[in-house]
Design a protein that fits this description.
By secondary structure, the protein is an alpha/beta fold. Helix content is 39%, strand content 14%. The protein has a 5-stranded mixed beta sheet with strand order 8-7-11-9-10, with helices on one face. A hairpin with a 5-residue loop joins strand 7 and strand 8 (254-259). Bound molecules: iron/sulfur cluster. Iron/sulfur cluster binds next to helix 14 and helix 16.
Length: 463
């Protein structure tokens, strides 16, 4: 079993606790080599972003740093747990805030920037306080002499999983994915209207690297301990450890740190302290960003290549377990409704198509549906990505489509009204995990598809 380096056994919330535990060293390690050497070290480590894209961090940084004629480079760290079922960002902040700061500073030195932002979700009051206190201590200790870190609050929107939307939030707008690329054009690079009425881009782009805080803690650990240490964990393609949130039909909910490459079934069983009510479970979902993992696929290794081989993805490793009694049509409806509400509406096929799929699934859940609703879902899903500006409708298609394909028994029971009428449930974000039990918020139930907030729970569809 690989050692933990992301989550210490005890929280290190003060600088003295962090130093006392001997967890520091990333800023010192990043101060000696040149920025190019730092980027090459990260590239040689094989680190992949702990985010949806899971791209090579080093390759991205080398490309961004190579760009000539640029204005200011920026680094953005995200801590938003925007994936349903994810609690890893909050766990990391609660347990290891100074490792996050060291990771940000070390990454900024590698990227030759002195400007960094830390984006924290607005509802994370406790985590915001922990980070601002830690930043104040880090400032006093002289950690931030070469890099400034500004904390930015972001609303509760799934689109924060899109880097372009994160940049919009930093610039004070809603998280709508911009057309300009973060890596190339970056922050503060939107076109401005000149006196002649023409829109112009600024003279120089501001290439901006966006990474999750989990990625940046990995960066700090690699610079401190070396690439050989890092590559000794995980697989050749997926080295290192990963934070996973485990919820649903298991004995204990929580966040665990595990070595990549282990059998997914074992990781969830161990982290969740056993499956409920019986093992193996009926299905596992990674948030709403991967095809459903059916029983037979749980033997796949927890690695990007291992899950890709069974047609799935790690996503943000937010694993929700569904036991034998789960009705997967109810689950598909929750996910479709979530995407419908979270779609920003810039692309009509995404917003309206998601609404239609949600409506057909609601009929099946309410036991008033029929086979033609299933056919309509299968016809509509491939069309919702038409002209899309981001990959959210593609995720919707993949997840809901995979559930409909994988559980023909549940589909047929719903289409032939063999179930009692059900009440559509809402996919809420985790609010807290207490003594092994995940507690969920109520915000999603009150969010309308136009993103306004209702006093009462919203009924999305008329049946
Ligand atoms: S695809 Fe959907 S979520 Fe993405 S920008 Fe278009 S409408 Fe918004």
């Amino acid at each position: 079993m690989a050692p933990s380096y992301l989550l210490p056994e005890e929280p290190c919330r003060s600088l003295s606790e962090f130093l006392g535990a001997g967890l520091d060293g990333a800023i010192a390690a990043a101060s000696k080599p040149s920025p190019l050497q730092l980027r090459q070290t990260i590239e040689q480590s094989g680190l992949r972003g702990r985010d949806h894209a899971a791209a090579s961090v080093g390759k991205k940084w080398l490309t961004v740093a190579k760009a000539a004629d640029v204005g200011t480079r920026f680094l953005v760290a995200t801590a938003t747990d925007s994936e349903p079922g994810s609690f890893v960002d909050r766990a990391l902040i609660r347990m290891n805030p100074f490792a996050i700061i060291e990771g940000i500073v070390a990454a900024a030195l590698a990227l030759e920037t002195s400007e960094a932002f830390l984006v924290v979700r607005r509802s994370f009051e406790r985590e915001y306080e922990i980070m601002t206190n830690a930043l104040a201590e880090a400032e006093t200790a002289g950690w931030l002499e070469r890099v400034s870190i500004k904390c930015v609050r972001a609303g509760d929107h799934y689109l924060l999983t899109d880097e372009r939307a994160v940049l919009e939030v930093i610039e004070g707008r809603l998280p709508l994915p911009r057309r300009l690329s973060p890596d190339v054009d970056g922050l503060f690079c939107n076109a401005e209207r000149g006196g002649d009425g023409l829109d112009r881009l600024p003279d120089f782009p501001n290439p901006t690297v966006v990474e999750s805080i989990e990625t940046l803690v990995n960066v700090g650990a690699i610079l401190t301990n070396g690439t050989r240490w890092f590559r000794a964990m995980g697989t050749a393609v997926s080295p290192g450890n990963l934070l996973c949130t485990i919820t649903g039909d298991v004995n204990a909910h929580g966040v665990i740190e595990t070595e990549l490459g282990r059998r997914l079934y074992d990781v969830i069983e161990e982290g969740g302290e056993g499956y409920l009510p019986t093992s193996p479970p009926k299905a596992v979902l990674s948030g709403v960003s991967s095809a459903v993992l059916t029983r037979s696929r749980l033997s796949a290794p927890l690695s990007w290549e291992g899950l890709a081989a069974v047609g799935a993805d790690i996503g943000r490793a937010a694993f929700t377990v569904y036991g034998e009694d789960a009705n997967m049509i109810d689950v598909a409806h929750q996910i479709a409704a979530f995407f419908y509400v979270e779609s920003c509406g810039l692309c009509p096929a995404c917003k309206f198509g998601s609404g239609e799929v949600t409506g057909y699934l609601a009929r099946l859940v309410a036991a008033v549906g029929e086979q033609r609703d299933v056919e309509a879902i299968n016809r509509r899903l491939p069309l919702i990505s038409t002209g899309s500006r981001c990959d959210i409708p593609a995720r919707h298609h993949e997840v809901v489509g995979s559930i409909v394909r994988a559980f023909p028994g549940d589909v047929s029971d719903a289409a032939f009204r063999r179930n009692e009428p059900g009440t559509p449930l809402v996919l809420e974000h985790i609010r807290e995990i207490v003594a092994g039990v995940a507690l969920y918020g109520t915000e999603q139930s009150h969010k309308r598809p136009d993103w306004s907030v209702a006093d009462e729970p919203v009924h999305l569809t008329r049946i």
